[in-house]
Amino acid sequence: MTPILGLLMLLGVALGAVATGLPVWGILIGVANLGAALAMLTGAIEPGIFFALPNRVVGLLESDLLQALPLFAAMGALLNRLPLADTLFRAGLGVSGGRPTGAPAAALMLGAVLGPMNGSVSANAIALTRSVEPALTRRHVRPADRIALIAVASTLGVLVPPSLVLILLGDAMMTAHTIALNSTGRIARIVNTQDVFRGAMLPAALFLGACLVIATVRGLRTRGTSTLRERLSPRDWITAGATLCFIATLLAGVASGAFYAVEAAAMGAVGLCLAGWLGGGLDGPRLRGALDDTIAMTGALLALLIAATTFTLVFRILGSDKLIASWMSAAPGGPLGIVLLGLGLIALAAFVLDAFEIIFVLIPIIMPPMLMRADDAVWVAVLTLLVLQTSFLLPPLGYALMMTRSAASAAAPLGAIAKSLAPFLIAQMLIVAAVIAWPALTHPGRSSQAIAAQPTASEADIQQRFQQMMPPPLEMPDLGPPKL
Amino acid sequence: MAQFVAVIDRFIQASVDAARWLALPLVAILFLQWPLRDLVKAGSREANDLGQCLFALYVAVAVTAATRAGRHLAADTLAHHFAPGTRACLGRVLGLVALAPWAVFLLVTGFSALLSTLAQLEAFPDTSNPGYFLVKACASLLALLVLLQAIADILRRDAPACGAQEPCKAQEP
Known about the structure:
Radius of gyration of chain A: 23 Å
Shape of chain A: globular
Largest interface: A-B, 79 and 72 residues
Helix content of chain A: over 70%
Oligomer: heterodimer
Order of helices and strands of chain A: HHHHHHHHHHHHHHHHHHHHH
Structural class of chain B: mainly alpha
Radius of gyration of chain B: 19 Å
Number of strands of chain B: 0
């Protein structure tokens, strides 16, 4: 009975969030409260088991990786207030010589360049709409094409390191992989955020290349448009060049392991602050506004994470994760079958949950059973990123799509936008298929046999160990009951 | 009652106004970690511990700051049809059955650990640097601010509750 209660809780979160419009973190906590109360009232669970919660919250507050959240939020807030994105875009137009294909290509490149600095899809969508849309309008690009192009560009940062989605997924994968390895008895290095960064690079480059081809072909069809040249001052060229060099250094540093993602994010934030101060664009009111945005955005993310931690604690105490794991293990098709099933669940969830909710709530539940069967954790992580990126773009609820539509100056029918997005989505799905067919794409320079460790346990052993590995979280029995 | 709510509001707003500036030293300290570790070869662990304290304090206030700014992630598919009063009522219910009980639970179950860490001024276990008690205490501070905000929202009569948010534009973290 109790495992089913957990599944009802999942359903309750989805229904409660959609039906009430209340903050999702509150819904998660409310449903967790209700589930815990029901389980205690029926005598299925001892109340003391929930005393693990304060330690779990402390665990979040002392996480090194989560320190990146305010840094990314600060970068997003600063980008919204500084003219840097605009300068970069105009430099891209200047390089293209004002050709009709130049504007879409420059928009995509700007998304790829700003994505790692920004981290947030919404901040990317807003910054790109502000910088790119007027230029596209001047070049007579249709509103639906503008929205589709900007939405695609704003999601490029999901795959290009060190983006926020990538960092948080890397952290969730590390936990899930640890559980999977302990359950199966396999001996392998536990995947980390850096592995996911490196694994995502080639698929990200392939998708960016495909998008550039699509945008160029589309631009060639608008040959009738007069050539519009951008005039940039020497200072603009220097700013654009310095920014590109700075970003390239950050990416190279993270990819080579010279510094951690958190440090790279801090460097990005410091770089933006310095650029703002030196350029005179970051005065007192703008700084205060950016700081207000930063604390609110950080709070929204952490609230969601804390609520998801509460929810998954109750979910696991109820044993619902084991139930899902046993269902998933029954999927036909071996490791590939279970991975496809998991990715399908993520894609379905993306219709009602955004990427962060999926990473915080769904990944911890479905990823351990996936990684128990699939040896290559980096491959699974990159596939998850690709599916998440696609979910941002899927009409009608794709998050990047919604953000771009609301930020755009001119409205366009959803059908026209969907038609304009179709080639990008097809390209995305082809890349997903390619990564499924050739896992080596996520390990450039290495053979997949060299990466994957073979399972050393039978199916029955895996099930048994998983049951033992994931008991109700009892890491806090020492706290004891409260002394009132 | 209105005066009580006003006092709570002022306290929370003062906390948010002060905490927002913590982002600057946090960025600076985390930025300095790399040169301290790889160039100076000293002080990076101290910077890391100090960064953890600042981060915990910042986050403890940030959750409530997001509530007051109406920035929590919310699905507005159906709710944009609701009247403001309905949304305000839903927000009060959320505070009453979800946020306030959760915050009280955190405060009560974490109380003995809070007293213990404060009494011994617990240091960071890996480095023995002082200040770990601040990280632990921030969990209780977070819960306290959530509780106070929920109480203010439940008791507020002259405005829609903060929990019932406007449509979710620009709310994606």
